[in-house]
Specification:
Blueprint lengths: L5 H17 L10 E2 L16 E2 L2 E2 L1 E2 L2 E4 L2 E4 L5 H19 L7 H19 L9
Parallel strand pairs: 1-4
Antiparallel strand pairs: 2-3, 5-6
Length: 130
C-alpha cells in the first residue's frame, strides 16, 4: 500500500485484517514489512507503531516490490547494482562453453549472442538480430 499518512495506513491495515478474519484468510505478519518514503529535504520520521492483526509491522530501509528494490531515500542505485550483477552472472554462464574455441569462432558465434542478451536485458526487441 502507498499511503500518505500513518493513520491512513493503520486504517487500511485494520480493514484488511477485518476482511481477512471474515473470509478466514491468514496473513503472515512476520513477513510483512514497510518502508517510509519522504522527500529528500524532510527528516526521516521516527518509526511508528503500525499493526496488522495485533502484530507490529516491521519498518525497514528497503523492500523488494514487483521485482524492484525500493528504499527510503528513493534512490535506485542498489537496484541497478543488483541488475548489473545479474547481467554479469548471465554473461559468465554464456561465456563458459566458448572458452575452448578459437578467436574466429568466438567472434562468429559469441559476440552476436552476447549482444542479443545485453539488448534483451535492456528491454529491446531482439527477435530479428541473430
Amino acid at each position: 500500500m502507498f499511503i500518505p499518512t500513518i493513520s491512513g495506513q493503520q486504517c487500511l491495515l485494520d480493514i484488511c485484517g477485518d476482511c481477512a478474519a471474515e473470509h478466514e484468510i491468514a496473513f503472515n505478519c512476520n513477513k510483512t514489512s514497510g518502508v517510509g518514503f519522504c522527500p529528500k529535504n524532510y527528516i526521516q520520521p521516527a518509526p511508528s507503531n503500525v499493526f496488522l492483526n495485533g502484530v507490529r509491522v516491521q519498518l525497514c530501509n528497503q523492500v523488494k516490490y514487483v521485482g524492484a528494490l525500493l528504499n527510503a531515500s528513493l534512490k535506485d542505485y542498489d537496484d541497478i547494482q543488483r541488475q548489473v550483477k545479474s547481467l554479469y552472472c548471465a554473461a559468465n554462464k554464456l561465456r563458459g562453453p566458448f572458452d575452448q574455441c578459437s578467436p574466429a569462432v568466438k567472434t562468429l558465434y559469441f559476440v552476436p549472442i552476447a549482444l542479443q542478451c545485453m539488448l534483451a536485458s535492456c528491454g529491446a526487441n531482439t527477435h530479428r538480430l541473430v
